[in-house]
């Protein structure tokens, strides 16, 4: 993937989102408002997408980013699931969206249908793209149940959504700047779906920042 300002900014926002999450966990010593099930989905996304680490080197930057995303997400899951006192604040009943039942099977099917070829790497890449586009759902559902969103948690989710929006701008830029034009229909469709899922959250997040108030999601908000 060619580097440009939009992609680099997206990468930095993605890094920032993870730093904000780890900062929230380490500072507060609790994981209230954080969906471990979303983190598990992202770990599956990264492990599926970055299997090329085993056989293909692109650059030091690329390798470092991939390793960081895998390691930091695995560490986050460990903190929430197993590391006291953080793990003692994890509400398994609230964070119970069954992604294994409702999200993974359709993503597997879509990956088989949309992969460029039936090689393992291409199927895993397509699977990771489709899974990432819906990985935010457990987090949004959990926040909707809680309604009141902590500042660091809100900033984390906002940065996570903004990074994907910048990747859409990256794709638009590459389409017009590269010859032949960059085309990736699977990534485009999944990216638009993923960004659209954040719209409701972004609306209330922006209102809370504009008025300097705590982020509170209304009962009728849809996720």
UniProtKB/TrEMBL annotation:
It comes from the Eukaryota. GO terms for molecular function: ER retention sequence binding. GO terms for biological process: protein retention in ER lumen; protein transport; vesicle-mediated transport. Its main location: endoplasmic reticulum. The keyword Ribonucleoprotein does not apply. The keyword Endoplasmic reticulum applies. Residues 1-28 form the signal peptide. InterPro entries: ER_ret_rcpt. GO terms for cellular component: endoplasmic reticulum membrane. Keywords: Endoplasmic reticulum, ER-Golgi transport, Membrane, Protein transport, Receptor, Signal, Transmembrane, Transmembrane helix, Transport. Belongs to the ERD2 family. This is Endoplasmic reticulum retention receptor. It comes from Toxoplasma gondii GAB2-2007-GAL-DOM2.
């Amino acid at each position: 993937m060619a580097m440009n300002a939009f992609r680099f900014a997206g990468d930095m926002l993605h890094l920032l989102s993870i730093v904000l999450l780890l900062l929230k966990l380490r500072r507060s010593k609790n994981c209230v408002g954080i969906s471990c099930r979303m983190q598990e989905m992202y770990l599956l996304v990264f492990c599926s997408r970055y299997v090329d680490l085993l056989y293909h080197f692109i650059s030091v930057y690329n390798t470092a980013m991939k390793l960081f995303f895998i390691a930091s997400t695995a560490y986050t899951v460990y903190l929430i699931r197993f590391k006291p006192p953080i793990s003692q604040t994890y509400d398994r009943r609230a964070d119970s969206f069954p992604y294994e039942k409702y999200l993974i099977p359709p993503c597997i099917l879509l990956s088989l249908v949309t992969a460029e070829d039936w090689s393992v790497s291409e199927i895993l890449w397509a699977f990771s793209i489709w899974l990432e586009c819906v990985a935010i759902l457990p987090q949004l559902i959990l926040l909707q149940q809680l309604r009141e969103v902590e500042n660091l948690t809100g900033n984390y989710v906002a940065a996570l959504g903004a990074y994907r929006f910048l990747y859409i701008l990256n794709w638009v830029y590459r389409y017009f700047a590269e010859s032949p034009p960059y085309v990736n229909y699977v990534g485009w469709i999944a990216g638009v779906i993923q960004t659209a899922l954040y719209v409701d959250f972004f609306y209330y997040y922006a209102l809370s920042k504009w008025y300097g108030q705590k982020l509170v999601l209304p009962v009728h908000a849809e996720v």
